[in-house]
Amino acid sequence: MGGKREGAATGIGSFHVHRGHVFEGFELRGEELAALCGCGVTLDVADAAFSACPECDGDATCVRCGGTGLTVDHAALAWRLPATT
Fold first, then answer.
1. How confident is the prediction for the chain on average, in pLDDT?
2. Contact partners, residue 10, CB within 8 Å, separation at least 6
3. Which of 49, 19, 36 is nearest to 82 (CA)?
4. Under 8 Å CB-to-CB from 1, ≥6 apart: which residues?
5. N or C: which end of the chain has fewer CB within 10 A?
6. CA angle 36, 72, 84 (to 5 degrees)
């Protein structure tokens, strides 16, 4: 998966949204993180970036990271439109 980052980087803006639609959430797709709309469309994608979980050290019972010891580094994400091909 995406690289582990020691410090937060500066990302590029936030992802696009569909006005009046519910935001569905995020999905990890290999090396990319996808922002999803409730209508089923992929809004934007970013190269996945992770940092150490601030709540634990890889504890299997951690609800924040699920025991992986890593969380998404939102500040490092550079959002772009998904490929259309």
1. 83
2. 75, 76
3. 36
4. 28, 30, 31, 48, 50
5. C
6. 35
